[in-house]
Design goal:
Blueprint: H1 14-23, H2 28-33, H3 43-60, E1 63-64, H4 80-89, H5 98-111, E2 115-123, H6 131-134, E3 146-153, E4 156-160, E5 174-175, E6 182-183, E7 188-195, E8 207-214, E9 221-226, H7 233-245, E10 256-263, E11 266-274, E12 277-282, E13 285-291, H8 295-306, H9 312-317
Antiparallel strand pairs: 1-10, 2-3, 2-9, 3-4, 4-5, 6-7, 7-8, 8-9, 10-11, 11-12, 12-13
Length: about 325
């Protein structure tokens, strides 16, 4: 029966949540922490549970745009129940782009009782994977092309993002406080800065800028800027349609699949397939693992390094595409 309340958002059942926990290999001790029934969880308890979920999600579910190149239909859906089927139930290791993974994660958090809403973000062109080849040095922020989640705990808002595909994704909830650096991965530091961005003509306009810095005495780099204004599902449908169909969107002419690496409950690096190369970065040290020459090699590498297994129709789906590796 259709819902008539426009503010209604989808949720997952307890059985679905259990299957999601299995998908991200969440240890039992953290599952018990999420059982808030019977007492009011403290701020520290909620932040701990949220942080553990975020880290295990990043380490289990890849950021990838394979649907746009290997799927026979080349279409993306943001419907939460479809995303659950694709990412959790299919068993082929699939993930998705930012709006897919953050929509799934946001629905999980909402189903667990967290106070959450989603907002839009603008990614700095300089941190996008095509920046080096196109000479994009930035800072120049794209139009609304990224989705983030904002979680309120004890009246304090936090940025929570499991869908930023770059090497500097936030690995823990970040309170919406300006200029409060925290450690992230290896020697990397992150912070939020409430400021104007270079693209604005009105200097009184302010956004939250998620910034990265590597090592000591290194300059801060804008990764993306975001607003606290709630974006609606129909907003993200428009954003997803553009980024998945426009010839100016790198998602349509480059292939990426990336997943974070976790040791002793901490994110220490990432492994990513980008076009015809597989690279691993642990605590800041990059390593080229393999250069791929053919589609057969790329399909095998997706499974070997990232646990993604494409079906036969998907393997055939890239034939004739500009992104096909011809050897």
């Amino acid at each position: 029966m259709p819902f008539t309340d426009p503010a209604h958002r989808s949720s997952y059942s307890k059985e679905q949540l259990k299957k999601y926990f299995d998908r991200i290999s969440l240890p039992d001790k953290y599952r018990r922490e999420l059982a808030f029934e019977g007492h009011i969880a403290t701020l520290d308890e909620q932040l701990s549970s949220l942080s553990n979920l975020q880290k295990h999600h990043l380490a289990a579910i890849p950021f990838e745009n394979l649907e746009l190149h290997y799927s026979p239909t080349k279409t993306v859906s943001l419907e939460p129940q479809y995303l659950f089927q694709k990412i959790v139930l299919r068993g082929d290791g699939r993930g998705g782009r930012c709006m897919e993974t953050n929509c799934l994660f946001g629905t999980v958090l909402r189903s667990l009782g967290f106070d959450i809403y989603s907002a839009g973000a603008r990614v700095n062109e300089a941190v996008q994977p095509v920046a080096a080849t196109k000479g994009w040095k930035g800072p120049r922020h794209d139009g609304w092309n990224h989705m983030i989640n904002i979680v309120t705990i004890a009246n304090k808002k936090h940025l929570v993002d499991v869908g930023f595909g770059g090497p500097g994704a936030p690995t823990h909830p970040i309170p919406l406080l300006s200029d409060q650096p925290s450690g992230n991965i290896g020697s990397q530091s992150v912070r939020l800065l409430l400021s104007n961005i270079s693209d604005n003509t009105r200097k009184d306009q302010q956004l939250w800028c998620y910034q990265l810095a590597y090592g000591e005495n290194r300059s801060w780099i804008d990764a993306y800027s975001f607003t606290e204004t709630e974006f609606l599902p129909q907003d993200f449908k428009m954003m997803s349609f553009f980024t998945s169909t426009s010839k100016t969107s790198w998602f349509t002419y480059r292939i990426v699949c990336a997943k974070y690496l976790m040791e002793n409950e901490e994110i220490v690096g990432d492994i990513r397939l980008y076009e015809n190369e597989v690279r691993c970065r642990v605590r800041g040290a990059p390593t080229l693992l393999e250069t791929l020459r053919t589609e057969e090699e790329r399909v095998l590498a997706l499974e070997k390094y990232l646990g993604v297994k494409l079906s036969e129709p998907e393997v055939l789906g890239i034939h004739g595409m500009i992104t096909q590796l011809l050897g």
